[in-house]
Design brief:
320 residues, alpha/beta, Rossmann fold, 6-stranded parallel sheet, 3-stranded mixed sheet, 15% strand, globular, binds NADP nicotinamide-adenine-dinucleotide phosphate
Length: 320
């Protein structure tokens, strides 16, 4: 029990953010810089985390104290559906290689990023952490979800058998600087920002949004997520996964209207009801993290403003 309450100091530590070029990785890096901790950041630029031997050799040479595992093969419904092998295989390999070599090299703490996608469909909302594996998975992203569940269970197994301090965070849908705008790999916020922006530029009269607009979703600004990662790295030491979200939901219709306002698009939104809505509601119960003392700060309005500013400032270099 005492072990669970132990406060971990990130100051003066060797820190490795696996996935430092990704949206979450970049945000964790920004937060660490903001904190002004005297840390040594390790770089694994050319390392392919699917290759066990390379990962083990790199770990043995660099010996990180703290590992943020924010590397993953991430994508939207289309990509998941088209490349199931990549989603299950890459994510299993990345998770197993990094977690196993963290154990072998006595990493003090590993923060594993799962996802709210691992929850079954048809469960009670707001979703509590105990509902994992309590039903069947969404068929389109089951490959990704199964690999992510395995990553979480591998962390749990290493804690159980070897006492490793490896924790799993379950973030809701993220958006913010560093997002991916690839046609097949992007998520709802990136797809909509892009669509509304270009509709404004081309003075198009309408913007098409998939589905009825009725489903409810939760969106977390990525810098809040990164702040939670550091907060939990310092203060949470349990084998139980922990949700990270705002605890607030918004309909896709309201979300699209907010993006319309943020991008100053003057045309009309059309909801294409012939396209699937997906799951109706997906809201994380965030009582556990709130009770520990962390609450998401950024409102959706402010988050979207920052997101769009970053998008405009980086239009020529964003990932497509
Ligand atoms: N985005 C969301 O809405 C969301 C929601 C919940 C949970 N999460 C979780 O948060 C984590 C980070 O997501 P993200 O949105 O930041 O994804 P992202 O922007 O796509 O970044 C993924 C990172 O993983 C790296 N990566 C992928 N395959 C690799 C490999 N084989 N070897 C080395 N590095 C590899 C990428 O490196 P390259 O740039 O070199 O490819 C990139 O740095 C993931 O675990 C994801 O499941 C994300």
């Amino acid at each position: 029990m005492e072990e669970l309450k132990k406060k971990i100091e990130l100051k003066n530590k060797k820190i490795w953010i696996a996935g430092k070029t990704g949206m979450v990785g970049q945000a964790i890096l920004r937060q660490l810089i903001k904190k002004n901790y005297n840390i040594k950041l390790l770089d694994s630029k050319t390392l392919d985390l699917r290759r066990q031997k390379d990962v083990e050799a790199w770990m043995e040479k660099n010996k990180p104290d703290i590992v943020f595992l924010a590397a993953a093969k991430v994508g939207g419904i289309l990509a998941n559906d088209k490349y199931p092998v990549n989603f299950i295989e890459d994510n299993l390999l990345i998770s197993l290689n990094v977690i196993r070599s963290s154990y072998l090299n006595k990493v003090e703490k590993l923060i594993y990023l799962g996802s709210s996608c691992i929850y079954p469909t048809n469960i009670k909302n707001p979703i509590t952490e105990d509902l994992i594996l309590n039903g069947s998975l969404e068929p389109t992203n089951q490959w990704y979800a199964l690999a992510k569940i395995s990553g979480m269970k591998i962390c749990e197994a290493y804690r159980k058998q070897f006492g490793c301090n490896f924790i799993t965070l379950l973030p809701s849908n993220l958006y913010g600087p560093g997002d991916n705008f690839h046609k097949q790999n992007s998520h709802v916020p990136a797809a909509l920002i892009d669509r509304f922006h270009f509709a404004k530029e081309k003075q198009e009269k309408t913007v098409l949004v998939w589905g009825s607009g009725k489903p409810l979703r939760e969106f977390l600004f990525v810098d809040d997520m990164a702040e939670a990662c550091i907060f939990l790295a310092e203060s949470y030491n349990s084998n139980e996964p922990i949700n990270v979200g705002t605890g607030k939901e918004i309909s896709i219709k309201e979300f699209a209207q907010l993006i319309k306002k943020t991008t100053s698009y003057k045309g009309k939104i059309i909801f294409d009801k012939t396209k699937p809505d997906g799951i109706y509601r997906k809201l994380l119960n965030v009582k556990k993290i709130n009770k520990l003392g962390w609450i998401a700060k950024t409102t959706i309005e402010i988050g979207l403003k920052k997101y769009y500013k970053w998008y405009l400032d980086n239009l020529d270099k964003i990932r497509r």
